[in-house]
Automatic annotation (TrEMBL):
KW Amino-acid biosynthesis (keyword) present: yes
GO molecular function: methylenetetrahydrofolate reductase [NAD(P)H] activity
Pathway noted in the entry: One-carbon metabolism; tetrahydrofolate interconversion; Amino-acid biosynthesis; L-methionine biosynthesis via de novo pathway
Protein name: Methylenetetrahydrofolate reductase
Organism: Maribacter confluentis
Keyword field: Amino-acid biosynthesis, FAD, Flavoprotein, Methionine biosynthesis, NAD, Oxidoreductase
Record InterPro entries: FAD-linked_oxidoreductase-like, Mehydrof_redctse-like, MTHF_reductase_bac
EC number: 1.5.1.54
Requisite cofactors: FAD
Length: 317
């Protein structure tokens, strides 16, 4: 079922969902299941599975270092299919521009359609670690909006190089990213919101936000988006702080602000167990306020171990 249908059917009740990252190549899927299992009692109507960019590795060859490109966490579509099959829940594979040609994206979408996957998140992807700015892949897309357009075309039976009867086409429901504190490359929040509006006008059905730690930022973002005529559901993305290093890492990587109270509470922690507890409590308070405000879904970023997401869900669902 489509994410938007799940929201409609919930009739105003806030739903619980989460996002997982595929395991590193060579690891067993059981590890992933072990982290999903404890969250299934909260009835997520859908689970997102991220797609990672390719990375550069240096392989020793005849005394020299040979530069190669590899993908450390492949398997997004396969994981989505196995989760749907095992848990009877909808999955949302993330489709990214970076590292994929338009043809490769088309094949991925065709696979999703055959596998009964009805939702996709359309994203640009970040710059590769050795790049300062995002550089489009040769033959690929430059911005997420182009991906939204490709998916919408596919929904109408328009493939890249052929047009077929729309009767048997996909009907993907499309999610896109939104940034309550603006995307790091955008000159202003208003410019970024206009780009978001373009994605929605191109056919995006819902928005999932970047993590934020101050609900005021989300509420103001939603208000500004509505004022611009963005009327699709805007799902807040929540990430519980899990380690002390997040205090530096999250603002640096995502250009988001952390509230002073949260910084001080984390700073006072003696162990990472204490930090995890602070992160859980902060996310519970954030989630309670968002739920009371009637957000359609509370979507949690679960980067590995899910014990913290379970603790938050227990307090809310
Ligand atoms: P876009 O919407 O293309 O925007 C990128 C930047 O370009 C913005 O600054 C925007 O304002 C600007 N822009 C847009 N259109 C134009 C235009 N026509 N001309 C000029 N400027 C323009 N990354 C991954 O690699 N894998 C994932 O699975 C993944 N999942 C994510 C899930 C969520 C919910 C979020 C919020 C992010 C996720 N990301 C993921 C990160 C995302 O790929 C990065 O934030 C990326 O830098 C931007 O992606 P976007 O889809 O928002 O890009």
């Amino acid at each position: 079922m489509k994410v938007t249908d799940h929201i409609t059917n919930a009739k105003g009740k806030t739903l619980f969902s989460f996002e997982i990252v595929p395991p590193v190549k060579g690891k067993n899927i059981q590890e992933l299941y072990n982290n999903i299992d404890p969250l299934m009692e909260f009835n997520p109507p859908f689970i997102d599975v991220t797609t990672s960019r390719e990375e550069t590795v240096y392989v020793k060859k005849e005394g020299l270092l040979d530069k190669k490109t590899t993908r450390m966490r492949p398997g997004t579509v396969g994981i989505c299919a196995s989760i749907q099959h095992k848990y009877n829940v909808d999955t949302v594979p993330h489709v990214i521009c970076g590292g994929f040609t338009k043809e490769e994206t088309e094949y991925m979408l065709v696979d999703c359609h055959y596998l009964g996957i009805e939702n996709v998140m359309a994203l640009r992807g970040d710059a590769r670690s050795e790049q300062k700015y995002f550089e489009p892949t040769h033959g690929g897309h430059s911005y997420a909006i182009e991906l939204v357009e490709q998916i919408q075309n596919l929904n109408k039976g328009k493939y890249l190089h052929e047009t077929v009867e729309a009767e048997h086409s996909s009907e993907f429901c499309i999610g896109v990213a939104g940034y309550p504190e603006k995307h790091l490359e955008s000159p202003s929040l208003q410019s970024d919101l206009k780009r978001l509006k373009e994605k929605v006008d191109a056919g995006a059905d819902y928005v999932v936000t970047q993590m934020f730690f101050d609900n005021k930022k989300y509420f103001e973002f939603v208000e500004a988006a509505r004022n611009l005529g963005i009327n699709v559901p805007i799902i807040p993305g929540i990430k519980p702080i899990a380690v002390k290093r997040h205090l530096q890492l999250l603002p640096q990587v995502f250009r988001i602000d952390l509230p002073q109270d949260l910084i001080e509470a984390v700073d006072q922690c003696a162990t990472n167990k204490d930090v995890r507890a602070v992160g859980i409590e902060w996310a519970i308070q954030q989630s309670k306020e968002l739920k009371a405000a009637g957000v359609p879904v509370l979507h949690y970023y679960s980067m590995g171990k899910s014990d913290n997401i379970k603790a938050i869900a227990e307090a809310l669902f």
